[in-house]
Amino acid sequence: QEHRLLDECQQVLGATLPVLDVTALQAPVFFGDSLALSLRGKELWQLEQVLEALGDEPGLALDEDVDCPSAVGDALGREEVLVGRVRRHPRDARRLECWLVADNVRLSALTAVQLAELLLKQSA
Question: How far is CA 50 from CA 16, 31, 97, in A?
């Protein structure tokens, strides 16, 4: 799943693909996908601008009430990808990390690619 997501990002973003680390967590639940996304940009991330952009993006829901949303408890039955735990890496301000959860019955991995595109726009 991790390799498939990286391949899809490469196809969509081509040569503009930054250093992207994806960890897919498989847990014994009936529904849901969870991803830890780490993206290294060319510039320092302005966290306020990233949060504003994420909050305005269709198909994404920035979950500010829950630091780490869960696929079953928070995303089940929703059509958005929930984004939580958005932060700069503590040792590298050019690296942005976030936690994504989604109801996998309703969404495909392409949504994660859309998020990567949005974050790339913010780092330019």
Answer: 19, 28, 11
pLDDT digits (tens, 9 = 90+) for 62-75: 877 777 888 888 88
Task: Report which of 33, 48, 118, 44 is spatially closest to residue 86, judged by C-alpha positions.
Answer: 48
What is the rounded distance in angstroms from the CA atom of residue 66 to the CA atom of residue 46? 21
DSSP for 55-109 reads HHSTTEEE--SSSS--IIIIITT-SSEEEEEEEE-SS-TTEEEEEEEE-TTT--T
Record the pTM. 0.68
Instruction: Report the pLDDT averaged over residues 28-37.
Output: 76
